[in-house]
Amino acid sequence: MHHRLILFLTYFFSLILVRAQGDHLSPHQREILAAKSPAPVEYHFSFDLPAGPQFSEAEKAAQREQGKGVMPMVMQAFKSGAGEVRIPPGNYRFGQEHQVGAKTFYPLHFEGMQRDAANPFVIDATGATFWFDLDDEQMPPGHRCVGFFDCRNIVLRGVIIDRGTRGCIEGRITKIDREGNRFEIQPSPGIVVPKTYKGHEQRLLPFKSDGRFCAPLYDLQQGKQKLDYVHIQPSTDGRYWVTMKDADLMGRLHDANWERAFGELGMLRVGDGLSCLFTTAMAIQLEDSANITLHGVSLYVAKGGPGESGGDGGHLWKDCYFGPRPGTSQWKGAEGFLCRATRYGTTMDHVTIRHTADDLQNFHGIWGKVVSVSGKQVTMEKNWGLRPTLKNAKPGDRLRFIHRKTGAFLGEAKLTAIKDFVITLDQDAAPFADGQAEWPDHQCAGWLVQHCLFEDNFQTFGIMSGPGTLRDCSFHRMGNAIGINTGIGTVGGIPHDITIANNMFLDVNPRPHRPSIEVRSHNSLGHQGAIPIDRLIIANNTITRSGGPAMNLVGLKNSRIENNTIDSPVRSTRIARPNEKSDLQAIILRHSQGVTFQNNTLKDPGNHTRPDANSGSRLLGLLQTQAIMLDGKKIPDFFTPASPKRK
C-alpha cells in the first residue's frame, strides 16, 4: 500500500509540474501537443542501401527555380493576413547563407513575422523537401539552412530538410592495419572526399554494421580526444586509408578485457563503419522568438542541428525526427539540440533524435562575469554568448550572483536598466565584485521533454536550468550521461526542481567508471556556501548497463530517488579495468543532505557490486552526507562541513 501511495504521489506531483511548465504554450500549441502522434520512424541502415534521392543537373536547376518562389509565396500570404500558406509537395533547392555587413542571412530567412496567439500563421510544407547545397568545407565556419528571427506564433509543418552534399566522410571498414595505425574504408554512395584538410574537427564516430554507435569507445574522446584522425588518403578501388593521430583506438580494439566487458558494441571489425567529421550546420534556428511550433518536421542534414536562442521561447517541437535519412546508407545524423537563454523553456513531444555528433541536448543560460562595479552599476565581461540574454532582458529581471571561483552565494538583485554590457541594479553592487551573474529568467526554465526516442548519440543530455521534466523517454547507446550541473564557466545556471521519471536508459555512458545519470553542483569542489541542486526527483526509471554506478550524485538537497530499477551497474568497470579502484555501489551520493531513497531495485547477476562501508548497502554509497533516508530508515550522518576557501 505504501509503495502504491508513493507511486501515486510521484505521478500526481509530476502532473502539477507539467501543467505549470505548459502554461507558456499558446492555445494553438496546446491543441497540437494534444494531437495523437504517429509511430516512431523506423530506422534501417545498410552500407548497400541507396544514399537517398539522386537528381540530374537539369532536375536540380528546376528545383532551384522552384526554391526561388518559396519566400515570396510565404511572405505574400503572411502580409495578406491569411492564416496559412500551403507549399505544394515536391523538391525545392536553395544555396548557402550570405553575409550583409555583420549580419548572416539564412537561405530561408524568416524575420519579424509576428501574429497573436489566437491567430497563428501556419507554413504547411507537408510533402515538400528543402535541399540546401552547402560547401563541403571544414569547420569553422558552420553553414545555415532555416532561421526564424524575432518571430511569434508561427507553425512550420511537415517539411523535410536535407543537404545536397553529405558534409562528412563515412563508409564500411575494409581493412584494419594495426602497425600503420589506420583503417581502410569504402565510402558510402554520394560521399565526396576533400583533397586537403585544415586540421579542424577531424574525429571519428565508430559504428557497427547495423548502424549502432559504439558507445563504449566514447571513452577515448572526453577530455582525451583520442579519436582524431590525421588525414584520409586514397587506397585502391575507390577506397581510402584513414590514419589515426594516436594509437589508443587500435590498442583498445586489441584489449581482451575490453572485449570481455563490452562485446561487439565496444569493438570495431572489418565490415563495421566509420564516420569522419569535418563540417557542421545550423539547420533550424529559432532566435529572439516566441511560441514557434515545429510539427512533423524531419531533419536529415549531416551534423546539422536545431537550436533556440534568446527571446521569450515557449517553443514546441512535436512529432519531429532529427537523424540520418531512414532506409539509406547514410549513418550521420544531426548535431545536438541547443536551447539557451530563452525566457521560457521548450516542449519536446514524440521527437526522435539519432546519431548526433556532439551533445544530444542542452538546456542552459549564459553566465555574466563581473569585470567591475560602481555604485549600482555592474560592467560585464564582453561575451558574444551573453547577447541573447542582454538583448531580451527587461527591468525587473532577477540576477543571482555567486563567487566565480568558489561558487559561494553572494546575493540577488533586480535589473533596472541596461546598456550594452553595463547593467544597473536596484541595490549597491559592491558585494558582487568577485562574482558572476546567473539570469534565472533567461535560462529556458519550464522545459519539458516527453515521449521521445534518443538512439546512438555521441554525448551529454545537459541540464543546467530548471524547473524541467524529462519523462517517458527512451535512451539507447549514448556516449555520455544525463548530466545535471551548475556549469560554472560561460554557459550554465543553477538547476533546481528537475524531475526525471519513467525513462529507460540502455547502454547510456557504458564506459568504465561512468554513470547514466550524473549530477554535480558546485559543491562537488567542496566549497562551503556553494548553492546545491535542490528538489531533484529521479523516479520510476530503468537503467541497464551503466559503465560504473547508475547514478553519481554530488551536491543535492531536499531530493528523492525512488522506485528505480538498476540492472548490471559496475560490471563493465570491474571487467574492463580489473586493477583500478572504482565505486562499487549502484548509486553514489556525496556532499548532500536531505535526500530520500525509497523502493529502488538492484539487479546484479554477476555480483559485481559491493556493500558500502557507510551505508552497509550495495545499492547506495555515501560520503559527506547528512539526513539521508534509505527505505524508511535514517542513515547515520557522514558529513563534515568543508573549510571555507580563501577568495
Tell me about this structure.
This protein is mainly beta. Helices cover 11% and strands 38% of the residues. The strands form five sheets. It has a 26-stranded mixed beta sheet that branches. The longest helix is centred in the N-terminal third of the chain and has 20 residues, at 2-21.
Largest sheet: 26 strands, mixed
State the secondary-structure class: mainly beta
Q: Count every helix, treating DSSP H or I runs of 4 or more residues as helices.
A: 8
Q: Roughly what is the average pLDDT, rounded to an integer? A: 92
What is the radius of gyration computed over CA atoms, rounded to a whole number of angstroms?
Answer: 25 Å
Q: What ranges have pLDDT less than 50 throughout 5 or more consecutive residues?
A: 1-20, 643-647
Number of strands: 52
Q: What is the general shape?
A: globular
Helicity level, as a percent range? 10-25%
- Give the N-to-C terminal Cα separation: 52 Å
Percent strand? 35-45%
Compile the SSE list and pairings.
Elements: H1 2-21, H2 27-34, H3 57-68, H4 70-79, E1 84-86, E2 90-94, E3 98-100, E4 103-105, E5 108-111, E6 121-124, E7 128-132, E8 143-149, E9 154-157, E10 160-163, E11 168-177, E12 182-187, E13 204-207, E14 229-234, E15 240-244, H5 248-252, H6 256-262, E16 273-277, E17 281-287, E18 293-295, E19 298-299, E20 304-309, E21 316-318, E22 321-322, E23 337-340, E24 347-349, E25 352-354, E26 359-366, E27 368-374, E28 377-380, H7 387-392, E29 398-403, E30 409-419, E31 422-425, E32 435-438, E33 447-450, E34 453-457, E35 459-463, E36 468-471, E37 474-478, E38 482-485, E39 491-492, E40 498-501, E41 504-508, E42 517-520, E43 533-534, E44 537-539, E45 542-544, E46 551-554, E47 556-562, E48 565-567, H8 571-576, E49 587-598, E50 601-603, E51 620-630, E52 633-635
Parallel strand pairs: 1-6, 2-7, 5-8, 6-9, 7-10, 8-17, 9-18, 10-19, 17-20, 18-21, 19-22, 20-23, 21-24, 22-25, 23-26, 24-33, 25-34, 26-35, 33-36, 34-37, 35-38, 36-40, 37-41, 38-42, 40-44, 41-45, 42-46, 43-47, 44-47, 45-48, 46-49, 47-49, 48-50, 49-51
Antiparallel strand pairs: 3-4, 11-12, 11-16, 12-15, 13-16, 14-15, 26-39, 27-28, 27-32, 28-31, 29-30, 29-32, 30-31, 51-52
